[in-house]
DNA sequence: CGCACTGCGTACGCTTCCGTACGCAGATAG
DNA sequence: CTATCTGCGTACGGAAGCGTACGCAGTGCG
């Protein structure tokens, strides 16, 4: 079950050129649209807990993720937090900008460290206004992201903890270059909106069945198929939308 | 606590003219943008259970709701359903069209009967491509809707049944012209993803505290403030976004 | 007017997950 | 090398909500 190549790769083909972007959105852009963006893209390292977006504050920069995972977390007045979406090399932060807005009530921060390409919100806005095809592509991603949020609502409302955990592991795995996913139970419990201890117990169940291997601060996926079986139909809808609209 | 005027009215001002649209989106449009849409708008009655959108089928028509409430329901492969959003006179169905797409994995149908203005998806698409301001407004609504979905995820993950129920009643009340909300416990249980009996018990709790009045097939809101207190911070985020971006 | 149907109230045992809490082990800093 | 901190395993009583199920009361239809 070894995995090679970059995350969220939809085919086994090796990369076509050195210059092909690791970020799936940028990779899907036409040459013309790339010319619009590239002068403003700046490569940055993204460490765990780095904040990409603060709730209800104007978004300064948008990040096309190349590696690692960011969480979009909904906060509600009284600090109750829960993850509504997860972004990796297949996407971007700052979807609100694509939708002609300047801020959102959500918080976005790095969950698994990585790197990305940063662009100023103003620059992106300008590029969007110049190219309809760029706008279309990024709007399609916004649609995918919205689907993810909606499916999170379904999972939170109807799935058992074990299924939700499986779903999360799969989504993180999709966005990972190898089979390792780095995260603490504590962090994961916040994402899922459950107790830390519940995560420990559930992951232990996976471990005992040989689906994962666990170490301090992370897990290794051993049997993805089996995890998919546990997640059942709570996993896969936004992924299908991504393939249909972008990949 | 009698309520007058149309739903989701943000101020006490009476309507400025006979021709002002009851739908808040249409009401917010410039005269020029209205001219683009109005020739294609057709008034239709919308009965409970009328289907506005079928999952993964091309959207033929988009509806600007004038009265009643439509539910956007996420379905996941194995038929597990749950509501992710609720649309009334403040919005429209077919957000996916605004985002440059033709279909979505969600199901949309009338929950509380009403009426609306229908426009063909193709016509709307054409109008969108002609007017940036129209596109901006409708994208803003898409953002509001996405916020609603995200907050539904939070509520489903963190709130107790009573709080979720309060949230739903408030959102339905917002979209209602008076204090009556017509729905069966059965329907509501599907929306919230819980047992029908749980809804009965929870509503009974509200009734005993004098917050609502119940009859077969519907309730009357008596003490909205108290219901808001129960919902706490699980209610209000998308509503604030609406006011900021549109209202 | 009677019958079937839909909607509502209630009840009981059961599962899942929570709140809390304690101890241990690997990591990090002095 | 010791102290401290962070992360993980485990445990127990309790709450919320589930599955199931039964009965009754409005409502509509023949």
Oligomer: homodimer
Class derived from helix and strand content of chain A: alpha+beta
Strands of chain A, count: 8
How much helicity do the residues of chain A have? 40-55%
Mean pLDDT of chain A: 93
Number of helices, counting only DSSP H or I runs of 4 residues or more of chain A: 10
The rounded Rg of chain A comes to 18 Å
Principal-axis shape of chain A: globular
Quick one: biggest sheet of chain A?
Answer: 5 strands, antiparallel
Beta content of chain A: 15-25%
Output the helix-strand order of chain A: HHEEEEHEHHHEHHEEHH
Distance between the termini of chain A: 22 Å
Give unreliable regions of chain A as ranges: 11-18
Largest interface: A-B, 45 and 45 residues
Question: Please, could you describe this protein's structure?
Answer:
Two copies of one chain form a homodimer. Chain A is of the alpha+beta class. Chain A has helices spanning 24-28, 31-37, 95-98, 121-130, 132-158, 161-174, 185-192, 196-208, 224-231, 237-245, and strands at residues 42-46, 51-53, 61-76, 80-87, 106-120, 180-182, 212-215, 218-221. In chain A, strands 1, 2, 3, 4 and 5 form a five-stranded antiparallel beta sheet that branches. In chain A, strands 6-8-7 form a three-stranded antiparallel beta sheet. The interface between A and B is large, with 45 and 45 residues. The structure holds a DNA duplex (30 and 30 nucleotides).
